[in-house]
Amino acid sequence: MRPGHFQFRSSILPALSWLLPGLCIAVLAALPAVAQEPGQTPRPTPMEPIKEPPEEELVQLDKTLEYFRFVEDDAPMIFRGQQISDVRRSAAAANELTAYNYVLAHARRQPVERLQKYATRNVPVANLFRPIRQDYLRELLHFDGRLSLVLAMKPTEDLKSLAGIDQLYEAWIFPRGSNKLVCLVVSELPEGVKPGEDQNSSVSFDAYYFKLWHYESRQPLKDSKDKDKHQWQQAPLFLGRTFEVTGPVAAEPAGPYSGTMLGGLAGGIALLIALAVGFTIWFRRGDRHTAAASRRRLEQTATFDDVPDAPAAPVNRISEHY
After folding, report:
1. Could you tell me the pTM of the whole model?
2. How many CA atoms lie within 13 A of 86 on its CB side?
3. What is the CA 60 to chain-centroid distance, rounded?
4. Lowest mean pLDDT among 74-83, 153-162, 211-220, 284-293
5. Which of 55, 71, 149, 274 has the fewest CB within 10 Å, making it most exposed?
6. pLDDT surpassing 50 at residue 40
7. Are strands 201-220 and 182-186 parallel, antiparallel or unpaired?
8. How big, in percent rounded to 5, are the helix, strand and coil portions of the chain?
9. Distance (Å, whole) CA 169 – CA 172
10. Could you tell me the sign of the dihedral formed by the alpha carbons of 70, 74, 80, 82, in that order?
């Protein structure tokens, strides 16, 4: 090999080692600008991170779901444990039950604190019996009241398999300031609360108003010979996760006359009667003393000097010559 040729190669190789990395960087930088050929797999483009919806939206129900169209308001549940022969009616019952499952599963996924934070308060319970209740259907509402009854009930198969809910409970509550019952279905009971009657707790709950529900009460049907038939009543049906025990049942507001006031009033009347009797006796004794003193003064001052003569005697005097 010639010395000159060897020297050329030895001088150009270091230059190429510095040049090649620069060419690669320039080619890679130009690649995004090169148009993609038809049929070529699209290259990924940079995307902004997906933003999580705010909590206020996460807690709300999706009211656009098709299942809600089949929820019959101001009526009992379509499916009542018996087979429905009508195909359309059977499909409506299945859709209403799906809506029921969806709301309970949605409530189970919500943290209790979130439900409490975004529930609408101060809704008159009477509005849930009137046509204006349409404004509150499937809304998250807050109520306080008195717990009356808790019943255990089985969940649907879909709630078991899809939401992991193994037990449901019916809590019957008198909202504060109302003598109307509402029914709250939950998947969890507060600590210390067990199913049973004669509950004695003040409670509060945050749940979704599902519908105005018709249910068969325990009151016997009037003028019916069948003792197994009972009157049907209305109750707002709420679906939620749980409720909170706020304390024992609050005392009923005092009437215009409390027991203490009535006791004081009776004592005052007795005292007035005693004073009246005492004053009467005192005045009578005083009258007797006054009359006796008057008689004594009269006897001391009386004389026979002013006795009238006979002609001045009474005209009905009996004659001595009779």
Report:
1. 0.65
2. 6
3. 18
4. 284-293
5. 274
6. yes
7. unpaired
8. 40, 20, 40
9. 10
10. negative
